[in-house]
Sequence to fold (265 residues):
Amino acid sequence: MEVRGASLAGDLRLKAENRFYLKRSGPPASSETILKWRIIMNLIEIKKLNKTYESGEERILALCDVDLNIERGEFISVMGPSGSGKSTLLTILGGLNHPTKGDVIVDDIPIYKLSLEKLADFRREYLGFIFQSFQLIPYLTVVENVMLPLSITKRANREQVIMAEEILERIGLRGKGKRLPDQLSGGEQERVAIARALVNSPPILMADEPTGNLDSKTGKEIMELFKSLNEEGQTIVMVTHNPENTAYSSRAISLRDGRVDGNCS
Fold:
C-alpha cells in the first residue's frame, strides 16, 4: 500500500488509510463503534474556524465559528453569495491562508501547526487545485502543463510523461498532448487543468468555480466528469455559485456572512 505523505519529515505520520479497517460482516456494530467509524472516515475536520481581515481600523470577519467534517470519498459543494466566505474557506482548506482562530485537520494532521516546509509537502502530497481561469502556461504543450506538479518529484522524465498521458486519456483528451492551450476549446482547457490537478493522485481535489468560464453545455460535461471521478472514490471540495452544480455533489453546504447556513442537499 502506498503511504501518502511519506516525504513529510519528523514525526508527521499519515495513518488514516492503514490504521483502521471497517468490517463488512459480523454482528451489528455498537453505537460507540459506529461513532468511532464515523470519526475514522473523516478526512477533513474543521473546528471553530475564524478568519478576520484588517483594513486600516476596519476588521472584516470572513469566517465565523465554522465547524465542518468531510468524509473520504465525499463530493462537497460550497454555495453562497459573493462575499460569503467561500473562497476564503477553500484557501484555508488548501493550506494557503492561515486562519485567525480554529483548527483544520486533514488525515489526522493539524496542518497549520506544520512548519512552512512541511505545509508545502502537505499541499504537494494531498491536494490538487483547479482554478476558474485554468491557469495553463500558454507556451507549454498540454502534456507539459499536466507534468508540472511532477517536476519537483524524483521521477524520471519518461515516467512523468507516461503519467501525464495516462491521466489525459482518462479524462478524454487522448491524442491532444502535443497541442498548445490556445489550440483547445474552453472545455478541453478545463480538462487539462483537471488532469494537472489529478496527475499526482492527490486524496483531495479542490475546485474554485470550475465551470465559471464555460458555457452551460460544456459546464455540464465538466460536472459529469467530476461526478465520475467521485464515483471512483475521489474526494472533491468545490466552490460554486451555480445551484445546478450542487446536483452532482453528495452534499451541499451553504455559507452566508461567513457562517454555515445549513445543509441544502
Observations:
- The chain has one domain: 16-263.
- The domain at 16-263 is CATH 3.40.50.300 (Rossmann fold).
